[in-house]
Design brief:
With about 280 residues, the chain is of the alpha/beta class. The chain folds into two domains: about 110 residues, Histidine kinase-like ATPase, C-terminal domain (Heat Shock Protein 90); about 120 residues, Response regulator (Rossmann fold, 3-Layer(aba) Sandwich). The chain has a five-stranded mixed sheet, with helices on one face. It has a five-stranded parallel sheet with strand order 9-8-10-11-12, with helices on both faces. A two-stranded antiparallel ribbon has the order 1-3. A hairpin with a 5-residue loop joins strand 6 and strand 7. Helix 2 runs antiparallel to helix 3 and helix 6 packs parallel to helix 7. It is globular and about 65 Å long. It comes from Gemmobacter megaterium. Keywords: Phosphoprotein, Two-component regulatory system. InterPro entries: CheY-like_superfamily, Sig_transdc_resp-reg_receiver.
Amino acid sequence: MRCVGFRMAGQDQDNDPSVEFALAEIARECEDAFSPLLRDRGVHLEVAIAMGAGRRRKGDPFRLREVLDLLLANPDPSGNVRLFFSGRPERPLTVEVSGVQPPPVRAIELVGLMKGLIDQTPSGAAKLTLPFGTVDASDTGRSAVRAKAVDAPFSGLQLLIADDSPTNLMVIREMLANTGASITAVSDGAQVVETWRTAQLDMLLLDIAMPVMDGLSALRAIRAEEDQLGRPHIPAVAVTANALKHQLDEYIMGGFDTHIAKPFRRQELISTIEALRPHP
């Protein structure tokens, strides 16, 4: 199974397809694609990004994703798999994948096309070093000034996002960067209910499958308290990979206003929030 759609035949030439990309989105896509597959084989996947390494970068995310696909598809059955991204903003991007078989020839070729290096750490992890620089801070600053009036549509909006995956929380935060929204993040349904009780919130974006209490149960508890206390219903979005018709019907019956199916794009998230946000 692939993290994403990859290059078609004939796209391996040594060109320079540098584009700006979000490292957190790559991490999320790989976690979503491979966690269930590895779990079925008795292997746990951990995905982490070092502090300072998550800034937007320029490089070839398509070949990077294909290399990660090749590595993650061949885990070492004796242990768990860890995917770790690091690299200070002014340094190359480093990716370590531990708990996998030695990299196949195809992965080595792709790293070479990206003008990077692939070797093995003393612990046996595959280590990629890639010349993917971060987006220039001055460019980001100028873009932010130019886009402030347009790209901050949610100024003052108080959002609660809930997901048990730190990677998914990071991706949503990045997608909502520069929108003006204030974000509170929690990792289970019980925290959702408690935060709703104590904080001033305008909208909920809830994963469904969470520990302690799932998102649907959390919203049902909130709806019951709203009715009991005479409080207005807070808009709620189900953010889930479980999006079959009978499941969506259950979410609506449970009190959700709408849903976003994982994986989703930034514009879909923005449009959904805009449609449900309270307007003065």
